[in-house]
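Case study B.
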Amino acid sequence: MTLKADLRVTRGTFTLDLGLTIAPGEVVALLGPNGAGKSTALRALAGLLPLTSGHITVGESTWDGADAFLPAEKRPIGVVFQDYLLFAHMSALENVAFGLRSRGTRRHEARAEAARWLGRVGLDGYAQTKPRSLSGGQAQRVALARALATGPSLLLLDEPLAALDASTRLQVRSELGRHLADFGGHTLLVTHDPLDAMVLADRLMILEGGRAVQTGPPAEVARQPRTDYVANLVGLNFYRGTAAGTEAGLDGGGTFTIPRPVDGPVHVVFPPNAVSLHAERPGGSPRNVWPVTVDGIEQHAHTTRVRLDGAPNVLADITTATLADLRLRPGDALWAAVKATEVHVYPA
Amino acid sequence: MTRNRVRGRLPVVLVLPAVIGLAFLLVPLAGLLIRTPWASLSTSLSAEVGEALRLSLICASLATVLCLFLGIPLAWLLARSGLPGRGFLRALVTVPLVLPPVVGGVALLLVLGRRGLIGEHLDAWFGISLPFTTAGVVVAEAFVAMPFLVISVEGALRAADPRYEEAAATLGASRWLTFRRVTLPSVLPGVVAGAVLCWARALGEFGATITFAGNFPGETTTMPLAVYLALETDPDAAIVLSIVLLLVSVGVLAGLRDRWISGPT
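Model:
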């Protein structure tokens, strides 16, 4: 019962064109910037938006296609919306029971099942609570229970953690991960938070401008980004270039010495903490060394990130001690150095 | 007071008309209270007054129920259906608001009268004749009052977030179930507000009622009609009737006020 979808939706000047396959039990994360088409894809899968062309099939049944359209209320789906959309006039229990009641379960059975689900998400004792009296994390769990209670074949999560504050988020994320692991159906997680995607998903699809620009397991995407957006998400310095042997000429200017000989178009990445900064040109071991000027300095939790202009532009994470040594200010001229062994190169 | 000191004096240009406006609204009501023959009030409350009051309350309530049955779906259609020409329809619905009620009564007579476009068939096929009956009063009041309900409910529907209806759809709810269990409860304050306005308007309805339903004591003579008639023969009775009508209206409004202005619970 694999979900296969070829989502094509045109709205004004925007076009979504996304091929998607989700195996049973698999969690696919759709990751992309605002306006990339993530929500459009989710709405199309939910049946809230008909496809312009393409198809959605699950096993033998067609949800959307040239001559068939199953409206949302007929699809075996569960959706957790970004702001949960819990029905304000119903108690938590009634919210969770709503889907069961809609699908024809008798009242007392629906309520018993809903109570079981509230227990499963750790909300025993909140059955009669109205949504406005629930905390953000509790509301999120009610929304999850409501989506899962009907035993859907496809679970759609629309930024399920975006509305939570940082401390709640960590806990709710790990709980969500547990429920997703127990869930045997297909899961699509839409998010712009790379951490949510990395932690919760088996496979990432990066969506930009309505198209998938990269697909793969989280570890692979994190190690080998293919676009600036992904590189930025996973926090790597990322360059396109052309390699000849152990030299790679970068498209934006500059040349790198790379650890293994390759030929042809390549992506070159290295983490910001692989960059060292020096007031004088360093000698010694074979390094990639080039002159840069300081463009900006940001203080992070334990490191300082320095944005540097040069050929190429680069981000460097330095320790507070180095920062003190160098007395950095925007406009300062420095030397950036990266060891060849720290540079990761893969075919474009 | 503190704020006045900070912001300076309130401008006379605004305060003066405001006070006059307030007086204009309240002085006539005060006059009514002052001129009321309180001593002889109970003796003036004859059986006829009781009958007119009972008729008024029953007719206004029935008209409100009729408006709820027809008006809520109409408001839903205007707010949610995506029907082409909704703007035009909305304008048409509000016509009875600005139409002189007497004209409304004439129009009702022409359509539902014994020789009217529809009334003719109602009479011939079912033996139903609306004009000059209590049912006719309800029809006339509903005709005049329904726009208040439709506009209020439609406003509430348009302000309600349609994504809740989408959420209900993803949970397997049909559009009817969604309307019943999600949409309607969320716009309940708007429905109550609309029903109160509708009821108040129906209770005070005069022009359309007297034109379409006539003036038959016990059958179509509602309080406003009784007031008007009494004014010509027995002004004191007219004052008493007015006071009763005023008290009933204010009482109902006050009773519903909390529900009316508070949000959903």
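Residues 63-76+100-265 of chain B form a domain with the MetI-like fold fold (CATH 1.10.3720.10). The remaining cases will be described in the next quarterly update.
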